[in-house]
Each structure stands twice: as C-alpha cells, then as structure tokens.
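Usage example:
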Amino acid sequence: MLKMIGQRLMTTIPSVIGVIIVTFLLTRVLPGDTAAYFAGPAASPQAIIEIRSKLGLDQPLPVQFVSYVTALVKGDLGQSLTTGQPVTKDLAARLPASAELTLAGLILAMAVALPLGVLAAVRQGSWIDHLCRVVATAGVSLPVFFTGLLLVYVFYFILGWSPAPLGRLDVFASEPARITGLYLVDSLLAGDVTTFRAAFAQLILPALTLAIFSLAPITRMTRASMLAVLGADFVRTARASGLSNRKVIGTYAFRNAMLPVVTTLGMVFSFLLGANVLVEKVFAWPGVGSYAVEALIASDYAPIQGFVLTMAVMYVALNLMIDVLYGVIDPRVRLEG
Amino acid sequence: MITRRTAIAAGLAAPFVAKGSAQAQAPSRNETLLLVQEYGPNSLDMQGIGSSQPVNGVALNCYDRLLRFKPVPIPGGGGNMVSMGELEGELAESWQVASDGMSVTFKLRDATFHSGRKVTATDVKWSLDRACTIGGFATTQMNAGSLEKPEQFVVVDEKTFRIDFLRKDKMTLPNLAVTIPFIFDSELAIKNGGGDPHAKEWLKNNIAGSGAYKVESWKPGVETIYVRNDDWKCGKLPQLRRIIARDIASPSTRRALMERGDADVSYGLPPKDFKDLLDAGKVNVVGVPIPNGVWGCYLNTQVGPFKDVRLRQAVAWVMPYDKILQASLFGRGVSMAGGTTPKVAWPQPFPYTPDVAKAKALVDAAGGPFSTTLYFDAGNATVAEPMAVLMKEALATIGITVEINKVPGANFRTEIAKKTNPMVLNRFAGWLDYPDYYLFWTMHGNNSIFNIAAYQNPALDKLVDAARFAPDKAAYDANVVDFIKLVNNEVPMVPINQPTHDVALQKSIGGYQFQPCREPDFRYLTKA
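Running the assembly step on the lines above writes:
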C-alpha cells in the first residue's frame, strides 16, 4: 500500500513541475501592467518604473523564473499586492474557510443526492425518478449567485431566520483558537458551544447554495451507475438466490455502484473548492476562490501562482485519496504504480 | 416525547434560536459601529507604494496631520463636507505664514503617540521627509503642493516646526491636510524598521501614530477593527469606542444588511441601490457631489478622427446628458449640460445641450460618417456601461458608429497610457478642489496618464500654470475663466456629469463627515 502511494506520488512530480512552469508563463502573458495598476491614481511614469523595479518585473523572464523557483523551494510563494500579505499566510487563512464551506455543502448534497439517485434507479420511471430529474436540472440551471441571493432574500431579509450574511462569524462572536482552521471543528475542540452555534448558523445558507448546485452531478451519476449495476448478472443471481430487496440493493448493488460516484464526488469537491467565487462574494466568505479572482483582476501574479499551485497539489492529493478509497470499496481494484 | 426526528429538528433550529442571546450584548453594540464596505485596506501605511483606496481611511483615523479641513455643512444637509480654503490645526496648535509668504511655522500641540511618547518636531520632519522621498503616489501627491525636498522641512525646536516654500503655491497648506503627510512616531518606526530608513515593511503592518483610533485587529480581505484612542489630544474625543469594518464584496448583500438594520454604514453601493434606499426612507442616504470629480468622455486630439475639433464639438452636442444621468446614475449626480458664462469652479457645465442637427452638420462638414471605439474600465461597469450604450445610440444618429470596449481593471491603466484610444469614458477626481489642479492632471502638456485625450496646447499650459501660481485672487479668477473658455471650445474632454458620493447610514448614526479621500471619518460619527 505505502509503496503504491509512493509510486503514485512519483508520477505526479512531472505534472506539478508542469503546473509551475505553465502558471508562471500564463500570468506573464496576461495583458495588463501590475506596476501601473498598483502605482495608483495620479502616478507619474517614473513612479510606475520605480514600482516595476521594486517588484522585479523589469528583469528578463528567465531571471524572474529562477527567483520564483528559488523562493518556492523555501516555501515562499511571494507577496500579494492586493492584501499586502505573504501568499502562504493568505492561503493558510483562507483555505480552511473554503474547505469548511465546500465540505459542508458536499455532505449536504450527498445526504440528498445519494438516496434520491438510488431510489430513482430502483423505481425507474416513477414520480421519484421524475423528481430526481427535476431537482438535477433545476440545480444546475440556477446560477449559484442567484440561488445564494434568493436564499439570503428569503431566509435573512424576509423571514429573518438566518443571521446576517457577514462571513464566517457574527461581528460580535470571537474566533475559536486555531487548530484546524475549520471553525466548527475548532469550536467543538475548545468546547465552545456558543461559537459553534454562531459558525454553524453562518454556514447553513452558503452550504445550502453549494449543495443545490452540486446535487445534479451526484444524483445523475448515482442513478446512472445504479441502473448499470442493477442490470448486472450478479444482481440477478442475488435476487434469484432469494435475498431480500434491501440486501440486494443496499449491500451488493450500492457498493458496486459507488466507484464512479466517488470519482464524481472528488471532481465536484475540487471544482467547488476553487470555483465557488460567487457564493463567497454573496456571503462575504473569506475563501480562496474570491482571493484568486481578485488577484487576477489586479494582475497580481504571486497569489494566482500560489492558488493554482495549491489547487494542483490538492487535486493530486485528492485523486490519490480516491484511488486508495477504490481499493477499500472494491477489493478487486488493484492499482499499479 | 423526544424522537430522533424532533431531536434533529431541534438541532437544526438551534442556530436560529441563538439569535435571541446575541441581543443580550446590546450595550456593546451601542458603542460599536459596523461598517460594510466592498474591500478593505491592503496596508496600514498610506505613504507606502501600492496602497489601495481604503488605506486612506486608516491614515485618516489612526494618524494625525499638521492641519485638517474644517467641517462645513453639506448644502443639502445630512452632515459636513470640507472647503479647501478653510483649515484648522490638528497636530498644530497654531500656524503662521511668514510676512514674505515664503515659509510657514507651526506650533505643535502637547500630543502623545499611542506608544505614550510625546509628539515632537523631529517626528514631523521624519514623516514629511519620508513622504517626499519614498516614491510612488505619496511623493507625487507631496509634489502637487510644492513639497519636494527634505531641506524644506526644518525643526526649529522640540515644539516648533517650519516649512520653507520653494515657490508661492496656494495648494501647499491644503495639501498638508490630505491623507499623505501624516505624522509617524519616528523612534518607534526606526527601532522596528530593521535598517530600512523608511521602515516600510513594519509600518505596512503596524500603526505608529497619535490618531483618534488604533487598529485592534486587521485581517486583510476580511475585516479591520479599530478601537478609540482615549488619549487623543487633537480634537473632541470621538463617541464611538469601537469600529468594525467588514469587507462584503457583494453590493446586494450590503444593501440587505443596511435594510435589515444589521449594518450601520455602507459605502460604495451602485447608484440604483442608493436611490432605492433613499426612496424607501428606512435609512439615510447622504450625497455630496464629488468635489473636483467628473465623468468625462475623452476624445483623442493627437490620433484618430477626433483630431478634428468639429467632431469633438459634435460629440458634445449629441451627448444625451439627462438620459445618462437618469439611466446610469439614477439621478445621483449633476448634469454638465448647458453652461452659460464660465465661472471659477470645476467641474462646471459646458455650453452644449443635445442638438442633433448642429452635431450632424459638424460631422458632415468634417467628412461624414465613420466608425470608432469607446473604451472604459470594466471596474466601473455598473455606471459606465449604460453610459456607453446611451452614447453609442446617440452617436449613431449623427453617423458615428461606436464599438464598445470594456477593459479589465489592470489593463485599463496600460490602455490609457498608450494615448492612442479615440474615445475613453473615465471619471477623475482630484483631492485638491481647484480648477487648475484638475486641468493640470487631465489636459496639461505635461501629459500625465490622465490626459487621456493627449491634449497639447501651449496656450492652455500657460493659463493653467499662471493660475496655479497666481499672485492674487483677481489674476487667478481671470486665468481660470480664460482656460475654461478655451476648453469649452476645444473640448478635449466632454464633461458628462458630476457624480454624487453617496453613503447609506442608519437613522441612529449622526455626524457624517465627507473627506476628499472619500473614506469614512469615524472621528465625527455618533450613534444614538
């Protein structure tokens, strides 16, 4: 097992190197002049030149690349100009926020999508199958910012049930001591129920927004893969052997149908982690998505490179985890390094 | 009976129920202000290179300057604004301009820094020297008031400080009241500077001032928390003890927070939201026409079709001023159409009103229909996009086909620096409210980045320079009227409207103070 993981990691090294080179080059070919942007209003051409040389942008590309990689080896992702902080510090602060939101959204989506998908497959053509189709279509076709704003409008503005969408915590609540960076976990570890409640209440609406969006791929994938499995020989054998319906579906069919679903989950997770910019904007959630987009608008290279690199590394880790999970779900799957 | 189902329901409902207990903290809410803004500061040092707009607010509230603008009532009510000529002492107890008019001497107050150290003339010199030598925007702004060399700043004794003038410049004193020449605790900065004479890194993340507020916590991109400095000596002690400024990117969310009464103050909503809030009447909206600020359509005078002055005038004759004011600013501004006699003011309406026949005649005389491109900054799209579309529509009626090009923020500076774009929509607002100051940036032969029309006219340069260093008011007024007449006719830029700077405040919030840097001044705000 460890050998397998080691071998898998070895194969990812070239792709990570590729990501480093490509993001470096991509950010450099982006139109726009970082120095002119940060020189601010009323800057003289001379001021812009000063800033350019301070940022090292007047150096030739290879020189810039070498200094970037040298810093990278030391774990230094550079300075963000938009927040004025080291990129590593920003990412460390923001990644847990995104992770907490995405995980919550995904768990919520799974709780609805898996049973719905299974039921739709088992009762193909029934009302529940149609419901599944409607939910999935509605989920993907509603843009997230719209769902987000609608939820804010109904649950905060009209009904007043939900707390003010002010980010991860109400302004008067204090942040739990940082252990994992996930407020729900940290507050529980600290035994602080008030903070847990406050953080949980803030999380519900954005998580729900994400869940509605990610329902579709999970439901559809569960349904399709269940249908395929239900038609397989071993299910017929199981039924012929007189096993109860519950046992056939729950134990044999579902477990076998899980492989493509887990792959989809992995994809959805990594996609949501970086792509829920609009949810982050609507709920003032200090996540990595909006961080990267703001940096992009300002042609702020370091955060973009740091973000893409982090995402690439996470993607690699996630895929590895999924591969390992395959082996657990289906012992027949043998991964070659 | 507690079933599993009710237990889950109770669990899910718990966060909503918890709302009641949050209100038990009410007393602290009364002394705390919650400000929601689009984005927060990227540094705590406004003099530093690359500081963003909200850093002005940090400089304003956490540091003191020698002078400040005296509050004068906003004509429409709702609070105070500033008037350029009227100054009062902040760190300066008094000041005296020498009889030859070539220097000014300040007597400092008995003020202390947050560190407890006394503010001395040495600190003032260190800070002003820094602003003049640090480069970037701070140095440019200092130069705008003829504050150019460290030799100008003289420590007379511990409590007395003198500035020697390079030339008589009416902007020197007002320029000491803007958010750049603020005073640092120089000993603290040097001690922590780690060898950097400007202590840039340390001051970016730390406050070393004497201002009315201290920064309690700063999480870039999330929130900034200010607490009152109870030992502030330079003015009336502010009422608010604590300010929480949260960064909420979505304007819809900020509006919802204001309407629900959860946030106390919001800046930077789209004009439509301000209009709706004003109409609904639940919260106060205070608008100040941005001094020295105007939305204009810059027409390139060096390359492309608009080299021909007749075509520039045609654009001015066909500009749908009122439609733009209604459809893009929702009435939150002042139209720049139909001026009569030139006044000593900026911005002021130019003598054009929509007149298709006149415009069409000018286009025909200049050679008939043609196509061109209109650029604007995508960051301003909320306002600029409807403006551009209305212009496109209007220009089509006189045979000018316009293609609209929306340029992303970081590229916009690069675009306008090229000075080859035929038409650009832009809003420029100078901090120092003088007509010559505006023209110095946008139409003068020094060709700054904001002279988007690349206008070059020695006659105008002469008038603008003469106005800047005019010996008396009569000469100044004459120069201003002359250059206004000149640009009225030459129209390198068609002024469209003067936008209003709006801020939404709960009814319980009083003491609104508009500052030229357009950031909230917490020192005057009150909460009932």
